[in-house]
């Protein structure tokens, strides 16, 4: 079965095509600058030069048509025709309390996703455009949606509720939802497989550290707590997001700087984090380079960033009454040995002893970066959210086929 995985943004579409017999990526790419006459489609096939095409793509329906044309292209394609695509899986950021698992798309599912627009105004409408675009181009092909929030629906109320009047939760669903759930789910399972232990016996802390970043406490295979909240702004310090802060800062800043709510929201989401403190960049690589060149602000930003990750690790170890393994994943988590060293150097109270030689290495496979004497394993596990979306879609479509026999 060939499954096309779609991640639709407001002006972009990312895609990967999987052969589920082998879970091999047949092709992948992205369409950027949708809505412009200079849109860019980038297409990659293993062991072949990247293909780049600039053209007018004014909407998502046209973007998906361009993707399908490329996948079936006589020279650059990997399929004979679009009938070789048996299912499409979509990443959807917010599933609210409605969705605790991946589901096949139908009229009711689309209605529920629309109801959640208020909770994810930048993401869910774009995902719906992606779903509609696939419907227009592949009307007979089943679609599935995989939610970033679904994995965290196992959190107990003591973890997901805020200490505010409960009427706000009942009327407006104000609560912790958490994000990056697909990644936390994938790497926790991969970690258990690497350790050779049933996930139902493990206490894991997974650290998805990219431009957006979150930690999760995973108790016996289920999300027990996570650092992102009702929105992705809460929690860790990130590339451009502030992470945790005193909520009174918002009205205080509005009054002192004569800002609007939208301006403060933009400041906290787009102009804070590493970028604000370092004054250099939101990219950890550039911050580390500046720190190594003696930039004091970059050094402070790096230390703050690592310190907040370490605080969450300590909190989650306490929340679960112990931890078996700490897992780093995503762009920064997988690639920055310096950050992992900084985070782990003060975790000796947990029995963490980093092996700097192992930590400095690189591998596309999961690996342990602690010594044999370490009581807690620290792992680096490359994430693969697209593969998990493809797997969930495959299982749902298999079930659909079984029910129609």
UniProtKB/TrEMBL annotation:
The active site is at 148 (proton donor/acceptor). The keyword Nucleotide-binding applies. Its EC number is 2.7.2.1. Substrate binds at residue 91. It is an enzyme of class 2 (transferase). The record marks 180, 241 as: Transition state stabilizer. Mg(2+). Can also accept Mn(2+). GO terms for molecular function: acetate kinase activity. Pathway: Metabolic intermediate biosynthesis; acetyl-CoA biosynthesis; acetyl-CoA from acetate: step 1/2. It catalyses: acetate + ATP = acetyl phosphate + ADP. Its cofactor is Mg(2+); Mn(2+). Mg(2+) binds at residues 7, 385. Keywords: ATP-binding, Cytoplasm, Kinase, Magnesium, Metal-binding, Nucleotide-binding, Transferase. It is found in: Cytoplasm. Belongs to the acetokinase family. This is Acetate kinase. It comes from Cohnella soli.
């Amino acid at each position: 079965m060939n499954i096309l995985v779609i991640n639709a943004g407001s002006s972009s579409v990312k895609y990967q095509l999987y052969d589920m017999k082998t879970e091999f990526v047949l092709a992948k790419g992205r369409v950027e600058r949708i809505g412009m006459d200079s849109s860019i489609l980038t297409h990659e096939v293993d062991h072949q030069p990247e293909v780049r095409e600039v053209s007018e793509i004014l909407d998502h329906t046209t973007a998906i048509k361009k993707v399908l044309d490329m996948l079936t292209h006589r020279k650059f394609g990997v399929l004979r025709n679009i009938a070789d695509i048996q299912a499409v899986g979509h990443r959807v950021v917010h599933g609210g309390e409605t969705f605790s698992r991946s589901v096949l798309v139908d009229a009711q599912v689309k209605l529920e996703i629309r109801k959640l627009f208020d909770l994810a105004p930048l993401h869910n409408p774009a995902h719906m455009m992606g779903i509609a675009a696939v419907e227009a181009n592949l009307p007979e092909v089943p679609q599935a949606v995989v939610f970033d929030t679904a994995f965290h629906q196992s959190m107990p109320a003591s973890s997901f509720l805020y200490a505010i009047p409960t009427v706000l939760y009942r009327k407006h669903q104000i609560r912790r939802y958490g994000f990056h759930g697909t990644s936390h789910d994938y790497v926790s399972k991969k970690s258990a497989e690497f350790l050779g232990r049933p996930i139902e016996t493990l206490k894991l802390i997974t650290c998805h550290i990219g431009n957006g970043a979150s930690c999760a406490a995973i108790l016996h295979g289920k999300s027990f707590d996570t650092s992102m909240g009702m929105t992705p702004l809460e929690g860790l310090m990130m590339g451009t997001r502030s992470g945790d802060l005193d909520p009174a800062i918002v009205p205080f800043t509005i009054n002192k700087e004569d800002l609007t709510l939208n301006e403060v929201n933009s400041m906290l989401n787009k102009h804070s984090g590493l970028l604000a403190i370092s004054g250099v960049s939101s990219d950890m690589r550039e911050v580390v380079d500046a720190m190594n060149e003696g930039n004091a602000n970059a050094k402070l930003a790096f230390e703050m960033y690592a310190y907040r990750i370490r605080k969450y690790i300590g909190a989650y170890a306490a929340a679960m009454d112990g931890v078996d393994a700490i897992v780093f994943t995503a762009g920064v988590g997988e690639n920055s040995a310096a950050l992992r060293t900084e985070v782990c150097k003060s975790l000796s109270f947990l029995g963490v002893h980093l092996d700097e030689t192992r930590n400095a290495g690189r591998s596309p496979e999961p690996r342990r970066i602690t010594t044999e004497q370490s009581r807690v394993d620290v792992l680096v596990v490359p994430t693969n959210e697209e593969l998990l979306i493809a797997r969930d879609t495959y299982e749902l479509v298999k079930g659909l086929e079984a029910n129609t026999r």
